[in-house]
Specification:
By secondary structure, this protein is an all-alpha fold. 81% of the residues lie in helices and 0% in strands. It has 2 domains: 162 residues, no CATH class; 204 residues, Up-down Bundle (Methane Monooxygenase Hydroxylase, Chain G, domain 1), CATH 1.20.58. The two termini are 21 Å apart.
């Protein structure tokens, strides 16, 4: 018995490591279970129930919850409205059917264009109005059956997503955040290099856009994680503090990019070149180490090196001001130098917030492991 349990545990662990394969398994299982239940309930057509279970089975539980809610809203809205239209025209004929389709589809298409939640409403109307021409049911019966079939497919899909090797959107948030931090670690030195050498602005724009695109993906995954917390009724931490911190770090990169649009005056470079290089390297290393810590749910890295580099930069800059290097600076250069100092202070504060988020995630991992032990 112990050997069987050990084999099952190893098999389960192996399956958990295969993300796409798990989705295939869940989708196939949802389709089969829906078909079996359709037979047990003696519903007229299995097509829509099985199709619904496949459509709303998504990569994560949170995404499946959203797909289920949106699909149900669109289907119920379309079924109710088209059922009423079919009841108004009970005797469908060659002329009545096109009229019904126009009356039903036009407003539902407008509704679908205004909100993606109702994207299935026009399709539902077509099914409700045309199925009676192929079977001996009324439009109202067709609408009722469509709603039942969709509800069946959604319920099976959601149950499979939650209980069969579930993919947690909360884990996907952590992974997306780690990838974003690693991307920032590669981007930051390239931006700060503009303080010393002229850089390609088109390339800088592409760099900033890549960070923005990665954050948009992270934000969408975080929205799925919020829905997932309701589905699981568990104590997963709200991902929003981590997302907000990464958004502020994204803004820091924008400010640093603007401050480093042109090289500093030679006199400043002679004094600040070394501290700037150390700041750039230590900040990039901290971002990279933070991403690795998040991915492994381990304790956050130390800020000591970055804080020492920031202190050295501030002291060197203060000495340069005392020596009068800022008096004859052009307005543009002065604005960029002081904007850089503000951006670095903001970066420090946001690094501290990131450290707190990482430590919270690591503590929850440890508490979970201890509770299982």
């Amino acid at each position: 018995m112990n050997r069987i349990a050990a084999l099952w545990t190893r098999l389960a662990d192996r399956i958990r490591g295969l993300r796409v394969q798990r989705l295939c398994l869940r989708m196939s299982l949802a389709a089969v279970l829906t078909y079996i239940l359709w037979q047990a309930l003696h519903l007229p057509l299995p097509l829509w129930a099985v199709l619904t279970s496949v459509i709303v089975t998504q990569m994560s539980v949170g995404k499946s919850v959203k797909a289920t809610v949106d699909y149900m809203e669109g289907t119920l809205g379309g079924a109710i409205y088209s059922g009423v239209v079919g009841a108004v025209f009970p005797h469908a004929g060659p002329i009545a059917i096109p009229v019904m389709l126009v009356i039903a589809i036009a407003p539902l298409a407008l509704l679908a264009a205004s909100s993606s939640r109702f994207s299935t409403a026009p399709f539902t109307a077509v099914m409700v109005l045309l199925i009676p021409t192929m079977t001996h049911v009324s439009a109202l019966d067709s609408a009722l059956y469509r709603a039942i079939e969709v509800a069946l497919g959604c319920a099976v899909s959601l149950a499979v997503s939650v209980f069969v090797f579930p993919e947690r959107a909360h884990n996907l948030v952590i992974e997306a955040a780690a990838r974003l931090l690693d991307l920032m670690a590669r981007v930051l030195p390239r931006l700060m290099a503009g303080l010393k050498n002229t850089r390609d602005e088109a390339e800088t724009g592409r760099i900033q856009d890549s960070v923005g695109a990665a954050f948009i993906q992270l934000n969408a995954t975080a929205a799925e994680a919020k829905r997932e917390r309701l589905a699981y009724f568990n104590a997963d931490p709200d991902p929003q503090p981590l997302v907000d911190t990464l958004l502020r770090l994204r803004h820091d990169l924008v400010m640093i990019g603007r401050a480093s649009v042109r090289p500093l005056p030679p006199a400043f470079l002679d004094r600040l070149g070394g501290p700037i290089s150390e700041l750039s390297e230590s900040a990039a290393d901290y971002l990279r180490a933070s991403g690795a810590a998040l991915a492994r749910r381990r304790a956050a890295p130390s800020l000591a090196r970055f804080e020492a580099a920031l202190k050295s930069y501030a002291e060197t800059f203060a000495a340069a001001r005392r020596d009068g290097l800022t008096r004859d600076l052009p307005a543009d250069a002065a604005e960029r130098i002081f904007a850089l100092g503000f951006a670095l202070e903001q970066l420090h504060q946001n690094f501290a917030d990131l450290q707190r988020c990482s430590e919270q995630i690591a503590r929850l991992r440890q508490d979970s492991a201890m509770s299982k032990a």
